[in-house]
Amino acid sequence: MDKIYEINGKTRSIRELLFNQKYSIDYYQREYKWETKHVQELIDDLSSKFLDFYKPEHKRTQVAQYGHYFLGSIIISKRNGQKFIIDGQQRMTTLTLLIIFLHNLQKKNNANSIVKVDELIYSEQFGKKSFNIDVDERAYFMEILFNGNIPDVSDEPESLRNIVARYQDITEYYPEDLQNNTLPYFIDWLIEKVQLVEITTYSDDDAYTIFETMNDRGLSLSPTDMLKGYLLANISDEDIRNRAAELWKSWIPRFQAIGKDDESSFFKSWLRSQYARDIRERKRGAKPGDFDRLGTEFHRWVRDNKEFLHLESSNDYFNFINENLNFFARWYERIRKAAQNINPGLVEVFYNSNQEFTLQYPVLLAPLKTEDDEDLCIKKIRIAATYIDILIARRIWNYRSISASTMLYAMFLTVRDIRHKEPIEMAEILRKKIEEDTQPFESGDYPFALHGQNRGRIHLLLARITDYIEQQSRMPSRYDEYVSGRGEKRCEVEHVWANHYELHTDEFSHPADFQNFRNRIGALLLLPKNFNQSYGDLPYKDKLPHYHGQNLLAKSLHPRCYDHNPGFLRFSQQSGLPFEPHQQFKKEDIEKRQNLYRMIAERIWNPNKLFEIAET
Q1: Mean pLDDT of all residues in the chain?
Q2: What's the DSSP call for residue 498?
Q3: Which pLDDT belongs to residue 217?
Q4: Which of 39-53, 275-289, 357-371 shows the highest mean pLDDT?
Q5: Nearest one of 606, 615, 611 to 390, comparing CA atoms
Q6: Confidence band (pLDDT; 50, 70, 90) for 478?
Q7: Quick check: 191 and 13 in contact, CB under 8 A?
Q8: What share of the chain is helix, strand, coil (3-state, %, to 5)?
Q9: Residue 373 and residue 330 in contact, taking contact as beta carbons nearer than 8 Å
Q10: DSSP string, 73-125
Q11: Rounded distance, CA 189 to CA 280, Å?
Q12: Phi/psi class of residue 510: alpha, beta or left (left: φ > 0; alpha: ψ in -120 to 50)?
């Protein structure tokens, strides 16, 4: 008689799932594939739900009365005394990364109230530490993350690169308002009140049967399907309904060709851009606004707001698809393609996409009207994209977050304020927003510099600075190569100073002061990886001759750059930018280069560009 295996399902908190537990993952399931947007959504969901309960006057003991949050299920196959994750490793890995981040954040804050989370991350036996998500090839890199550093995974498999990238996303997108006094409250709530259902089987066959049943998408309708059904059901004429259905059907593969999530992303971006009137306040008991609901349940929102959308007659429903949807679908497709590949007419969209600023799409669509011609649409999109580009650069330079959770409210206000506006009025509104909401480049007490979490951002800024001076010197653009180069053309952020404090004791009495200067953006360049491997450890005087063969920003350090280089010399003279060669590279030289980079940034991200575009 065949052995009968039981299947158990139990709701568990994150503490119960991870405390002194050990999970294995079969080798063929170990790929970690979550993307930035998945991390953003998880952090936004968790922080929003926590803030439903939290009040500043609460004591920590009151967290015990906060409500729960259900995060889904995981499927475990228990065999030979080990727990193997069959479904849920993406979520479990990300939760572990989040807890590691919270552990490091507590250390960084020197918090008085430390929530002990170590045993949710690893266990230790006979002096040997092993992580609770026990995957051999990850252990070394997880250890580095746990110690508060970012490992170099540039030559590692994609799964490991994704793990480190998602940890960096967590550091980027974790809300500022949950980082100080609120932090222990949030950690308590996360590990005690966030729950998952652990489904345990004692047979792999049973585990995979459950997995396939729970992921059978043929039985469920997406929000897009439900919106389509609602709109078409209200078109009474069969021929007209069929025309609308065919038009809708024609767009779905085009969205899917852009990206696997672009079908739903279009509807969220379109409807938010044209119809969102309010957004949820970040306080206890606040109800979701239009902007929130259109991001999660746009099909229900349309049904609930049919009067606001003027959906009354059969013809109204047809025109909503035939005119509105069709118009905005064309422009969404166009800006999404511009986000993926450089389009000279919409290059700012590409820049924002490289910064992974997914909130740009409703902002870009907001000023458009169905009666606008192509040239007017392009102009409006460029003004909106340039505003976002300036906003992002200024915030990064002043150590401000550009995470979705941080920027969501500001982007809603921008959508609302520029909706259906004409170019000049757009430029006036957005220029005012820049002046009120951002600081000029390097306006704070701390010069802009590289730190553990912003290397990718600095890479993109250096690419823009380098590309700008080359284009202004009548050279072809190589921006795409600087940010996306492969093989020998792959570029990295390089320090002008090698990491040798002992060579700089004449100017620095402490290694920390040396590092502070060494990491300033004025002491950084963007150079091919093989250059750094060959010359990165050399003193400046030995590297200087080799800089002359590199991009123009690096070449400008060398005296020969100022001979027989008419395009660059003309640009340098006309711009008034203080370019000069540097035979040596001391503290004073770094300060001069820091000022040069700042002045270039002010030219690239100049708010007057909004009016230049509007008036063309």
Answers
A1: 89
A2: -
A3: 40
A4: 357-371
A5: 606
A6: very high
A7: yes
A8: 60, 10, 30
A9: no
A10: EEEEEEETTEEEEEE-HHHHHHHHHHHHHHHHHHHHHT-SSPPP-HHHHEEEE
A11: 21
A12: beta
Q: Judging by DSSP bridges, how do beta strands 82-87 and 23-24 pair with one another?
A: parallel
pLDDT digit string, tens, across residues 18-31: 887 888 876 556 67
Pairing mode, if any, of strands 194-201 and 7-13?
A: antiparallel
Alpha-carbon distance 232 to 244, whole Å? 7
Q: How many CA atoms lie within 13 A of 438 on its CB side?
A: 30
pLDDT at 444: 64
CB 380 within 8 A of CB 387: no
Other CB atoms within a 10 A radius of the CB of residue 245 amount to 15
Both tokens assigned to 476: 């072809």
Is pLDDT larger for residue 4 or for residue 473?
Answer: 473
Is 548 in contact with 563 (CB distance < 8 Å)? no
Three-state DSSP class for residue 11: strand
Mutual angle of helices 238-258 and 223-233, in 10-degree steps: 160
pTM for the full predicted model? 0.74
Q: Collapse the DSSP code of 184 into the 3-class scheme (helix H, G, I; strand E, B; otherwise coil) and give the result.
A: helix
Assign 257 a pLDDT band (cuts: 50, 70, 90): very high
Q: What is the mean pLDDT of residues 524-539?
A: 88
542-579 exposure pattern, b = at least 16 Cβ within 10 A, e = fewer:
ebbeebeebbbbbbbbbeebeeebeebeebbeeeebeb
